[in-house]
Amino acid sequence: MLTKDDKLKDGLQLLMDNYWVLRSVSPKEYQFLRSMEKDLRQIISDKFGWRVYFHTDFIKLEKIPVEPEAWMGMLSFEEPMDYALFCCGLAFFEEKDIKEYFLLSHICEEILESYPGTPKVDWLNYNHRKSLIRVIKKMLDLHLIETIDGDMKRFLFEEDAEVLYVTTVYARYFMRPYPQNIYDYAHWSDLIEDETLDSENAQRHLVYKKLFMQPQLLRGEVSEADFYYIRNQRPSIEHFAERYSEYHLELYKDVAMLVMHENKAKSVSFPSNKALDDILLHLMALVRKKDFSVDAHGEIHLSTGQWDGLLDELIAIFQFGWSKEYRDKKKDALEVAIVQHGKSWGFLEREVTGICIYPTFARFAGKYSLNGKEEVEK
User: Fold this and answer.
1) How many other β-carbons are positioned within 10 Å of the β-carbon of residue 284?
2) Tens digit of pLDDT for each residue in 34-67?
3) pLDDT of residue 241 exceeding 90
4) Distance CA 257, CA 250 (A)
5) Most buried residue among 66, 185, 267, 336 by CB atoms closer than 10 A?
6) Taken in order 61, 63, 64, 66, is the CA torsion positive or negative?
7) Tens digits of per-residue pLDDT, 338-374?
8) Distance, C-alpha 337 to centroid of its chain
9) 318 CB neighbour count, 10 Å cutoff
10) How many whole angstroms from its chain centre is CA 268?
């Protein structure tokens, strides 16, 4: 039988893993969270400073990050236009009643008038229609609208194709409410600053948000006071993480991170079964063996020549065991893939003079064992 702490752990994980929990879609999960409403509110407010909404039709934790990252976006979106069309769609829903029917042509006409970007939207353009299809699919996935009749796929080949939709109760609640009129903000960063201006526990909230929402917290990217807070409050952070989550705190001289000892099915973690994860593990093993100089924050700064030589060595030693996709890649394309994937995990980043390797990179290393399988070292 689950203890109260076990239930709170599962409840927090549900809120962290989902944009929202809808009563009509997940009634058991909704009632489960409802039964712990008071305790969940207290924990979330105390540690993170976030708002959690317990609505008649849904439960939603507003996971506002300290700093937005590229990987925090909608992964199915491919172009900036996707986000702009999505926002235009939300504005369109603001004028609709709950359970009001509308045609695809209606939202297309509205977007033509309200789209703010240049060049303007042109539904004769195949790529613009593809963008709207991605947006409508995301709206359906989020249950902002429902399809009544028709097939959106026809719109890809016929700009005058029709589909009948209906708005849901959730369409009005996707956007979070703001403390003041959104037109009073001068810059998007002001929206985030509003979350902490009145908080006497701002430092605690910042640390917990970064630890739970980012792969790592680097000493070089926060104030010394914030990193000292982690060292000073280490027992408390460890206790909270292990009591209410699947994570365990790891704290080193230059980096702090939450790790899972066992990979969970729904979690996105490193390393996974992706071929690029294997390649990064091999690169980590090489870096460990080198005598590169390390700066005051534990970072390694490689010149273009050093980085190029490291890649040559990586390819020569490990390429034979990679998937065909990466064995056949040209070096330039492979380098781009490595840097992009490594940056998404906070392992490395391109600089004007070369590459910066962060201290998190030393956390793992990979090699081939005698039986040909991948081995991961800590």
Assistant:
1) 23
2) 999 999 999 999 999 999 999 999 999 998 888 7
3) yes
4) 5
5) 66
6) positive
7) 999 999 888 999 999 999 999 888 777 666 654 445 5
8) 19
9) 20
10) 9
